[in-house]
Write the structure tokens for this entry.
Amino acid sequence: MKIPVCKSKLLAVAVLTLTAHVPSMAVANDVKQLKNELEILKNQVKELRVLLNSQTKLMARKSEVDAVKEEVKKVAKDSNEWKVADSAVHLAGYGAVGYSDREGSDGSFSLVTFNPIFHYQYKDLFLLEAELEVGVADNGDTEVGLEYATIDWIINDYAILVAGKFLSPIGQFRQNLHPTWVNKYSSAPPGFGHDQAAPITEVGAQLRGGFPVMNEGRANYAIYIGNGPLIELDGDEVEAVEAEGFASNDDGELVWGGRFGILPVPGFEVGISAATGEVGPEGEESLLRDYSAFGIDTAYQHGSWDFRGEYIRQRVGSNSASAAPDAATFKAWYAQAAYKFLPSKWEMVVRYGDYDSPHASQNQKQWAIGANYLFANNAIAKFGFESNDGLSGERTDDDRFLFQLTYGF
Amino acid sequence: MKKQKLFGLGLVSAASYVAVSIAVQATQINVAVAQDTNTAGDIGRGASLWSQNCARCHNMRDPKEFRDDLWKPIVTHMRIRAGLTGSDTRDILAFLKASN
């Protein structure tokens, strides 16, 4: 009987031992697994920490974000200001450099000019515009001139009052075509330079504007009154009519005139202009004599063609009491054709001009042919040749080559 | 001398008379229309007027050359030079602003 009891006890102990060991093994496995997971998590946290640090370095701080917001607000305000400002400012103008090689003399870089134009506009009411003419003289001095300066009052859709020193509305070349980037040839037509047949500028006031004619047609006008030109005498001759805008009126007489232009169809314009008054020559201002100017101009554009022509004349009447008693007439005309070889950048221009003055040494007939390369419509290289016919031995008789580089801005 | 003076005087007077009388007439006809319909400018008409008028004197300039605020005084300057009407000027400006 003892034996079965012992056996049963041993069996019980064995069972107990086994049951005690089975859970402890399972726990050990769990712990090991947990340790592995913990290690993985630790590594992941470590990686995240590194990533977080690097991102924190890249992220802007709040103060920086606020600063950017302020900057954006300021830029938006500035951007809006120029869109709604009452006053607008603009700097335009043109410059040119040139080389000329005249028959019988050495070639030289004979042209350096810079003409800034200032525009200040207040609403749709006033425009102040002024052009300076800055150039290098033969002796190296810098010459500065006021080409024009006006305050323009925009009265309504059809009329503008222009006051100050303005480009003469007599003819077209001097008021609209003389800037180097606009003029298709490197020089002005004979007689259209300073102190020749065409009035340059005037000091006074003018009313100008435009209006529709029928459907497509347009007309434009300019009526002015000003101090008039200065008549320069040389011995017993009228040397020149200096119509360059003087802020004085020593002879006490005003000159008035105007231009009327009509475009019956777009691209074709005909203009007629005239001026009249009395002038007292320099040094004998009280000896008044008649002064008149007259001009006809036309222009036509079609496709790549550009045609234009103009006749201009200034006349000073006689006065028997003067040291230079005879009348004097300065007249000039030119015709010009230009063709653009599109789509290339080349343009050809041919011009004929004739200038007659009371002085034989100034008379000139000229054929001019030119080729222009347009880097852009406002940046142009001009090559030209002039065949000049003047009084033998005078510069007006010398042929010449011209090269000019001009830029309008 | 007197003949010439009278001729010049007559010519300028005639031109002035025609200009002013037509301007007044045009003003009367167009003021109401302009006030109602063309204060901002018409881009389509502006494109046509731009191509017809700028080349009267100089090579065409690209609308992209200048910002809106710069085109305004430029176009006003050109209005005075070319004798454009206010309405035509607004149309051209509208075109340039829409095309730059």
Remarks:
- Confidence is low (pLDDT under 50) at residues 31-36 of chain B.
- Chain B touches chain A through 48 residues (CB under 8 Å).
- Chain B has four helices and no strands.
- The CA atoms of residues 75 and 81 of chain B lie 10 Å apart.
